[in-house]
Design a protein that fits this description.
The protein is of the alpha+beta class. Helix content is about 40%, strand content about 25%.
Length: about 675
C-alpha cells in the first residue's frame, strides 16, 4: 500500500452514497485531481481519501483509465462482499489495532495491493467492526459499539421493510383512485406519516418517514413536503381540499375533554337555578338591547339607556362567566389553554364549551344570566358624571341585528326605538371627545366571509354603519371605566397602552387623502405596537387612558381574567391574582392569541382567494395602497384583499382596473394584471 497521491495511483474515497474510486491525475496541497469511473475529472479534498492503493494505472486515454478503475472496483467489490469482518473482529478481540496487510491476510489469505484495497473497501462499507485510525491501520470496535451498531442496522432494515410495504399499499390506492381504508394497517401507517408531515412539519414525530414515503411515491424528495403530503392525503380522501391546515396543526379544532364537558353541564344547571333570583329589572320597552350580527350566537354585551335629571343613565351590560368559571376549574384551564375563540368563514371554534358560550352564559331574553353592569351617568356632551360597576343577574329585553338597527336609526324602518336614537347621540358625543383627545379614527369597511355548503360569499359592511359605531363607542367606554375603577381601587389588571408614532411617521401619509384606503393602510404602519402593563398609561389610537379589555369574556380569556379581578374585589374586597402572576398569564395568553389571530387571518384569506378564483378572466377594481420595489399593493374593492401587482408607475391612492389571471388559494397566491 502507498500513502501517496502520485499520478496514476488508484485511490478510494468517501462519498454520500458510499465508497468510490478514481485514479490520480494531479496532486496539489490538500486536494487531488481525480478521474472517476464515469470518466469525469473531479477535485477531491484529500481528507475524503481513506485508502491509497499500490495499484497504478499506466498513462493512456481518459477512457482507458476510467475502464481500468471500473475493472479494479469490480474486483475489490467482489472480494469485499466475501469478507468475514465479524469473524476477523472476533479473532482480533483485545488488539489495539491491526495493519492493512494483516487484515487483508485474515480476510482473503493474501495481502497484495488489491486484497488490501478490498479490505479497506469492506471496512468502509461495513462501518461497524473496524475503524481506520491512520493510513493502513484499523482498530477493532468495542463490543458495546458493535452491539449498538448491529441493533441500529437491524432497526434500519426493519424500517426499510416497513417503508417498502407502506409505499406499496399507498401507491396501490393512488393508482386505483380508491380512498384510504384505515382498517388496513399499512395504509393507516402511511396516512399517519403524511399527516405528521402536514400538521407537525418535517421535524414532527413521523415527518422523516413521511418525506421518505413521498420520495418513493414521487421518485424524488419534494421541494414542498408539507404541500405534497397534503395533496396526497386529498387524493386518498383523507383531507378535504379546502381544509385550513393551520387550524388542526395548532389543535384549535380539538374537542373539549370529557371532564370539561361534564363540568360545563353542572354550570348550566347552576345558572338555571340562579335565574330565579334576578337582580336586574327594567320596565317593558326600556330594557337592555343586544345588537349583533345575525349569525352571532355568543352574545356578551347589551345596552340600556334612560333619561334622568341632568343627563342620561347608560348601562353597558357584559356577560360575566367569572361568576361560575374559576381559574383552577376544568373549564377555566381549558379556556386558558385556548385563549380565544376563532371565527372562521366555515364556523366558530369556541374558547369555552358551546353550552356555556352560546347557551347558559350568553346574554339572553329567555332567562337570567350573570352580568357585570357598567352603569354610567353621561352628560349630553359625553362627559362621565358618575359611574359604578356592580354584579347583576338578569335577562335582556331583545336582540337586534346591526342591519335592523341601522334601518331604525336612518328612519327607514317602522317602529323606531327611541333608545337607539339616544344611544347613537351619546356615542357620537363620546367619539368626538376621543377625537379631541387625539384618537385616530381608523374606520374602514369590513368584509364578512361566509362559507355555506362549500359556497363562498363575501359581504362588504360599511364602516359608516351607525349601529356598529355606536356599540363600539360604548365598548371602549366600558373598557376605560374598568381601567379607571381598577386604578382607583388598586386592583391589579393589565392595561393596553400605545405610544404615539415617531415624528417622521407622518411622511408616509404625505399626499394621501385622509380616510382613503391608502391612507388607512399606511396609517396603520405608522402606529406603534401596543404594550401590556400593570401600570395604566395612554392608548394613543383610542384616545383614552387606563384601557383594559373587559367586553368579550366569552371569547377572550384576557377579558375573563379582568372580570375575575374586578369581581373578586366587588365580592369581598380581594382579588385572586397578584400583578406578577397576572402579567405572566397575559404573556402566555398573548402568544396563543397571536396564533389564533394568524390562523383566523389565514382562513379568511384562503376563502377570499377561493371566492376570487371564480373571477378568473374577469375584471376587478381596486385602489393602490403602497409601492414595494417595482410593484404596487392593491386593495380590491369587492373583497378587501391586498395583493401585489405589476402596474408601472401607479402611486398610492390611484384607482386600477385589473384582470384576474390565476388564483391558487392553497399557496396564497393570485396573479392580476392591469386591464
Amino acid at each position: 500500500m502507498m500513502a501517496s497521491g502520485d499520478q496514476g495511483t488508484v485511490v478510494l474515497a468517501r462519498s454520500d452514497s458510499g465508497p468510490v474510486a478514481g485514479v490520480v491525475v494531479e496532486s496539489r496541497a490538500g486536494k487531488l485531481g481525480v478521474l472517476t469511473v464515469a470518466g469525469v475529472r473531479e477535485s477531491w479534498v484529500a481528507s475524503r481519501v481513506f485508502f491509497f492503493s499500490g495499484v497504478r494505472i499506466s498513462s493512456g486515454s481518459a477512457q482507458h483509465a476510467a475502464a481500468a478503475v471500473e475493472a479494479f472496483v469490480q474486483r475489490i467489490s467482489v472480494m469485499a462482499e466475501s469478507a468475514d469482518l465479524s469473524g476477523a473482529w472476533e479473532l482480533l478481540g483485545g488488539r489495539a489495532d491491526v495493519g492493512a496487510d494483516e487484515l487483508a491476510d485474515l480476510l482473503f489469505s493474501a495481502d497484495g495491493s488489491e486484497e488490501q484495497a478490498a479490505a479497506a473497501w469492506a471496512v468502509e462499507k461495513d462501518s461497524i467492526h473496524f475503524k481506520m485510525i491512520a493510513a493502513g491501520r484499523y482498530a477493532p470496535a468495542s463490543e458495546a459499539a458493535v452491539t449498538s451498531q448491529l441493533r441500529e442496522r437491524a432497526a434500519s432494515a426493519r424500517e426499510a421493510e416497513v417503508l417498502d410495504r407502506v409505499h406499496r399499499a399507498i401507491a396501490g390506492l393512488l393508482d386505483s383512485g380508491r380512498a384510504a381504508v384505515m382498517s388496513d394497517h399499512d395504509v393507516a401507517a402511511g396516512v399517519g406519516w403524511l399527516s405528521s408531515l402536514v400538521y407537525d412539519g418535517p421535524e414532527g414525530r413521523d415527518g422523516r418517514r413521511g418525506i421518505g414515503l413521498l420520495g418513493m411515491l414521487r421518485g424524488a424528495s419534494p421541494s414542498e413536503p408539507g404541500m405534497a403530503a397534503f395533496e396526497t392525503l386529498v387524493r386518498l380522501g383523507v383531507c378535504d381540499p379546502d381544509e385550513i391546515v393551520s387550524i388542526r396543526a395548532n389543535r384549535i379544532d380539538a374537542p373539549f375533554d370529557p371532564a370539561v364537558e361534564k363540568e360545563a353541564g353542572r354550570i348550566v344547571a347552576a345558572v338555571a337555578e340562579c335565574s330565579r333570583q334576578e337582580t336586574f329589572s327594567w320596565q317593558a320597552g326600556h330594557g337592555p338591547i343586544a345588537i349583533d350580527d345575525e349569525s352571532t350566537k355568543d352574545v356578551d354585551d347589551a345596552l340600556m339607556v334612560k333619561a334622568i335629571e341632568g343627563g342620561f343613565e347608560v348601562h353597558v351590560l357584559i356577560a360575566d362567566p367569572a361568576s361560575f368559571v374559576t381559574l383552577d376549574s376544568h373549564v377555566g384551564r381549558a379556556g386558558l389553554a385556548r385563549a380565544s375563540s376563532l371565527y372562521a368563514p366555515t364556523g366558530t371554534f369556541p374558547m369555552l364549551p358551546r353550552v356555556l358560550s352560546e347557551g347558559a352564559l350568553s346574554l339572553s331574553a329567555d332567562g337570567g344570566r350573570p352580568m357585570l353592569d357598567f352603569s354610567v351617568v353621561l352628560a349630553a356632551d359625553g362627559n362621565v358624571i358618575d359611574f359604578r360597576i356592580v354584579p347583576a343577574y338578569g335577562r335582556i329585553e331583545s336582540r337586534m341585528t346591526y342591519d335592523g338597527a341601522d334601518l331604525m336609526l336612518s328612519g327607514q324602518a317602522t317602529g323606531a326605538d327611541e333608545r337607539l336614537r339616544i344611544l347613537a347621540m351619546l356615542a357620537e358625543a363620546l367619539r368626538l371627545r376621543r377625537v379631541a383627545a387625539g384618537a385616530v379614527m381608523l374606520e374602514k369597511d369590513e368584509y364578512h366571509v361566509k362559507v355555506i355548503d362549500g359556497v363562498v360569499s363575501v359581504r362588504r359592511v360599511p364602516y359608516a354603519s351607525p349601529s356598529r359605531r355606536m356599540v363600539a363607542e360604548f365598548m371602549i367606554l366600558a373598557c376605560s371605566l374598568a381601567g379607571r375603577f381598577a386604578r382607583n381601587n388598586g386592583i391589579p389588571v393589565v392595561y393596553r397602552r400605545q405610544d404615539p408614532p415617531d415624528r417622521d411617521a407622518a411622511e408616509r401619509l404625505t399626499g394621501l387623502q385622509p380616510g382613503s384606503r391608502a391612507w388607512y393602510y399606511n396609517m396603520l404602519r405608522t402606529l406603534k405596537r401596543g404594550e401590556l402593563s400593570t401600570v395604566p398609561g395612554y392608548h394613543h389610537s383610542l384616545g383614552v387612558a387606563g384601557y383594559t379589555q373587559v367586553t368579550s369574556p366569552l371569547r377572550r380569556f384576557q377579558d375573563l381574567l379582568a372580570h375575575v379581578q374586578i369581581k373578586g374585589f366587588l365580592t369581598d374586597g380581594k382579588w385572586p391574582i397578584d400583578a406578577d402572576r397576572l402579567m405572566n398569564l397575559f404573556a402566555e395568553l398573548e402568544s396563543r392569541v397571536e396564533i389564533v389571530t394568524r390562523v383566523e387571518r389565514e382562513s379568511r384569506r384562503y376563502w377570499i382567494l377561493r371566492y376570487l378564483d371564480g373571477f378568473c378572466g374577469r375584471q376587478v377594481e381596486g385602489e393602490v395602497v403602497a409601492r414595494i420595489g417595482g410593484r404596487v399593493l392593491v386593495e380590491l374593492d369587492d373583497t378587501g384583499l391586498v395583493l401585489p401587482v405589476s402596474a408601472g408607475a401607479a402611486q398610492p391612492g390611484a384607482r386600477l382596473r385589473l384582470v384576474v389571471r390565476d388564483v391558487d388559494p392553497r399557496r396564497d397566491s393570485a396573479t392580476l394584471t392591469p386591464a
